Amino acid sequence: xxxxxxxxxxxxxxxxxxxxxxxxxxxxxxxxxxxxxxxxxxxxxxxxxxxxxxxxxxxxxxxxxxxxxxxxxxxxxxxxxxxxxxxxxxxxxxxxxxxxxxxxxxxxxxxxxxxxxxxxxxxxxxxxxxxxxxxxxxxxxxxx
Length: 144
Fold this sequence. Notes:
Layout: E1 2-10, H1 14-21, H2 27-30, E2 34-39, E3 50-57, E4 60-72, E5 76-83, E6 88-98, E7 101-111, H3 115-118, H4 120-143
Antiparallel strand pairs: 1-7, 2-3, 3-4, 4-5, 5-6, 6-7
C-alpha cells in the first residue's frame, strides 16, 4: 500500500479554501494530471455523493469513479474510488486555520494493480510530484 501526504499553507480563510477545493469543477485548474473531474450525483455535496475523474499518469489515461466518504466543512473532505485501475484508491483533504491562513494537507492511499503494480516505484514518485505540484498550483491560484 502506498501512502502519500503533502501539505501547503495558503494565505486565504479556511472557508474559502474548503469551498474551492471541494468544488470538483475547479480541479482542472489546479490538480496536475487531471483531465476531467465532476460530481455525478444529484443534490448537495456530502457523504455518499458520486464523482468521476479522468487523469493522466505515466502516459496513460485513467478513469476513476468514486464516492465522498467524509464531508465536514470546513475541516475534512474524504473520498474513495469505487472503480478504476487501482484496487484501493482513497484519500482526502484536511484543512486547518493557521493565523488567518489555511493549512491544506492532502493524503492519498493506493494499492497498485495491473500495469501500475509493475511500475509502482515510478508511479509513487510521479504521484508525489503531482500532489506537490497540485498543492503549489492551488496556493498560487488562491493567493493571486
